[in-house]
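SEQUENCE-TO-STRUCTURE ENTRY
===========================
Question of interest: how does this chain fold, as expressed in backbone structure tokens?
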Amino acid sequence: MSDDNSIKRWTAKHKAAVVMDIFKGKTTAAEVARQYGLTAPGVEGWIDEAQRSMENGVKARPKDIREQ
């Protein structure tokens, strides 16, 4: 993820990039929160959403994302 600390609106693409860096062990939710002026629970929510989406993606009969 870039070091642009002035992100005004977090798009799904930006969130996904941050979450992937966390999954890869390049950073932590706390570090991301501190770097971008976010809350750690907020970043952890992105992680939870990503995990649910991944789990749904590998199911035989995935739920509509709105049903989760």
User: Anything to note?
Assistant: The chain has a mean pLDDT of 87.
